[in-house]
Every structure is written in structure tokens, then in C-alpha cells.
Amino acid sequence: MRRKTVLCGCGAMAKGWLRAVAEHEGLRDRIEIAGLVDLNLDTARALADEFGLSGAVIGSDLGQVIDETGAELVFDVVVPVARAAVVETALAHGCHVLSEKPMAASLDEAEAMLKRAKAAGRIHAVVQNRRYIPGIRRLKAFVESGAIGDLTGIHCDFFIGAHFGGFRDVMEHVLLLDMAIHTFDAARFVSGKAPLAVYAHETNPAGSWYRDDASAFAIFEMADNVTFTYRGSWCAEGANTSWESQWRITGAKGTLLWDGADSFIARRVAEDEGFLRAQEEITVPGAPDLSETHGHASVIAAFLTAVETGTPPETAGDDNIRSLAMVFAAIESAERRARVAISPL
């Protein structure tokens, strides 16, 4: 059964969603892109032409397109400030919704979305596609194996000179709100620890082409005395890191290094004596389930399974709001130049 779906927001990000559907047989057989919605109808028509969606209904009013197509799913790929209205409309028309990140432009908006989804009896989930890449799955499984002992810290570096143009160039807190949430969510996922508090600092370095702060540094206190640190910049030219950040995970007995791509190095102490203890290198096993490591496609597949079974997906809104809370707490900390506690959600 192919479920009729309306994609709302036909800008550059939408192409990644449509490629995921088109290139994975398991999605092609389950999804029909029945409608495309954008304020600029020419943009929607161009997207339809590019992906061969000649039968899709084109419109600028989401509610009307949902009614005309009989869609039961909405892919929300609009800019963050428009997300709340899109999700509200989709839920009011009886659709399940999969949203681009960030989940909302504020925690109040996110909490309102959760209430509306619950009242409508529909699923609202978020595309945290970094959870569904092999590296992140490998990190989580390795930490849970206890190979380096009890987890003590996660430390991530993200430095890329990204020249987007468009809304990001004038977006407030652009790194924290639009990109850092991927690493924050991944750190919460890998560690299995709840965030408790944060101290953060934002800057806009000399030479930045962004209007507002495009560099950020944050120290998170996590449950069980685990520390998560993040250093990042979207205007750091030269020696780019991976888009997934560079990771150092420390345990009571050893350390795991991941370059964000293909290099995994793990070492642990091999002796009980000496000023600097002798170390041994240990193997980091591959991802435990390769069917869950296709990024965007895996998120969409998990969302569809949730719709079919009623089981909440891994990136359900009521879980993802915890990662969003990390972002807004970091923003508040940077603005106040003070430690900010993160309330349980």
C-alpha cells in the first residue's frame, strides 16, 4: 500500500527527502508523493519536474492540497519559523507529520505540537537523520558494550566553512539552532544520559559571512556525572571536520576516537601499574543493524512503520523535544553568560 503524502516546503532541503524516497525501493513501494506545497508555485512546479512528479497536486495552501489529494502523511520541510503553522494544519486535517529539524522555533511551540499530536491521535516525528548513520550506531553499541568502562565524557568538534546563502545567513543562533542539534541529539542518543545543565558561549568571528553568531562552545552536565562538550563553527575556513563532528568518548578504562567518517580508534589500559599505564588497541565492531543506517531513508522508513504499527518512532516529538531543550538552554546560557539548568520534559 502506497500512502499518499504531501510535501510542504519545496526548497533545496526538499530534494534530499525526495531522493531518499526515489532511491530506496522500500520507500518507493510505500509512499506516493501526491502533492507539493510552497508559497512560490514556480518552485513547487520545478521540483515536480525534476523528480518526475507530473501527477502531484501543486498548491500554496496546505489544507487545500491535503483535502484534494486525500493525503494521510505530511512531510514538513519549511523554514523553522513556519513549522508550527504547518504542523498544526497537517494535524488538524488528520495527517501524521514528519518534520525537518529543528522541531520548533521555541520550546513553547514544541510543547504545543506534542499536545496537538496527542489530541489528534497522530504521530509527529522529526528528521534527526544523523541517528541513522553507521558511525553513530557503532558509537552507541560500543559504549553500551562496556569495552572502555563506564562512560565519563563525550567531546565533539565541528568546524566547517559553510557558505549557504539564503535564510541561514541572517538566522539568529544559526549554528546552535540549525546544526548543533544534530550533535546534541546524537550525544544524548549515544550516551543514554539525560541533560541536566549547560554553560555556553557564542561568538561571530572576524571574517564571518553570517549576520549573527556562527560559532559556539558548550559544556553540558549529563546524568551520572557524564560531561558532554561541544566546540563548533560554521565559518571556520580550512581543515574542515566531518559534518558529523570529530568525537572523543572517554570511559573509566579507555577512549574511543571517531573522525566522523571511517576512522575508529579505541584503546584501553592493559596494566594496573605505572605513571602512564600501558594501553592496548581494541576493535570497534561495525553497526549492529545495517538496515537502520541509511540516514534520511531510515528515518522515513521508521516513521512509516510507526504509522502502520502505532509504535512511537525513535525520533518521535516527545523524545526529540529533549534535544531541542538542550539547544534552547545553550542559547539562553550564551545570552545570559550563565549556567542554565535543563528541566526534565
Automatic annotation (TrEMBL):
A Pfam family hit: GFO_IDH_MocA_C3
Ranges of residues in domain Gfo/Idh/MocA-like oxidoreductase N-terminal: 4-126
InterPro entries per UniProt: Gfo/Idh/MocA-like_OxRdtase_N, Gfo/Idh/MocA_oxidoreduct, GFO_IDH_MocA-like_dom, NAD(P)-bd_dom_sf
Domain annotation GFO/IDH/MocA-like oxidoreductase: ranges: 136-256
Gene3D superfamilies to which the protein is assigned, alphabetical: Dihydrodipicolinate Reductase, domain 2 (3.30.360.10), NAD(P)-binding Rossmann-like Domain (3.40.50.720)
Organism superkingdom: Bacteria
Protein name per Swiss-Prot or TrEMBL: Oxidoreductase
